[in-house]
Structure prediction request, 315 residues.
Amino acid sequence: MKLFLLLLFMPVFLLAQTPLEQSKKLWEENKREEAVKILEKIPKSGRDYADARYYLGRYAYENKEYDDAIDFFQEAIETNDKKSEYYTWLGDTYGTMAGSANVISQGFMAPKMKSAWEKAIALDAQNLPARQSLIQYYLQAPSIMGGSTEKAMDVANQILKIKPAEGHRQMGLVYLHEKKSAEAEKEFILMANADPLYESALINYYLGQNQYNKAFALIEKTLSKDPENYLAIYQFGRASAISGQRLNEGEAYLKKYLLHTPLNNEPSLAGANMRLAMIQEKRGNKAEAKRLYQVALTMDASLKDAKDGLARVSK
Prediction:
């Protein structure tokens, strides 16, 4: 009877959804174009106009239409200036644009992005993304524009009080920027101890520092506890591909990963094929490496490392 009533009234439930709710559902299902068609029709007089402009800004950002994204985020803020995430994304868009801009344009955008992130934090004391972006600003901006390692560390300490693991990660990144590797490693270890989900970041640190034995040891520790941990399975293959060590084991793990359907938080099959290609390249097998790079790019044309690898083995 309950099932019958649910089916009977399902069309009513669907009709009861607002256009914004419909578009957000489509957005979460990764049906962006369908969501955008609904968002564009939400009138300026409607109560959901600000959120609609915000999501249109997100869509423009994803498509690298940064000027349009700025316009959409500003329209959202003009309609409702109390939403922290609006300012976060406005600041991030300015930051992305500044990355490829000339010095004069960077100087013009710097105070705008900094102000946007500071406003986002003022509206929501728990806003971590805005603080993360602000740290990068302090590390990269010249002192004349407010850049300061000390300020970056102050923000990292703020994050530490909100989310300890992320706070330690950010402190580690600050030390890395200052080329203080011992202090950075200490923070990354504290990060992984605070939250095991952050262990991947510690592995990445070791790989980036060419400390391959430590990276493999961490991965093998996880696999000894859970041999079917597919994130660790992928990480072993990735570590092999990057280091050029234990290639046979790395290849076997990646081939096992390719038989798996990745979850949302797991690396893609395109990435696994790319890592296999890297292993073949390390072995000097250019023909097989080329084939695997092409497979990876067929699955995900945005993989820069695969594009670079294909160019190398095609010479």
Residues 103-123 form the longest helix (21 residues).
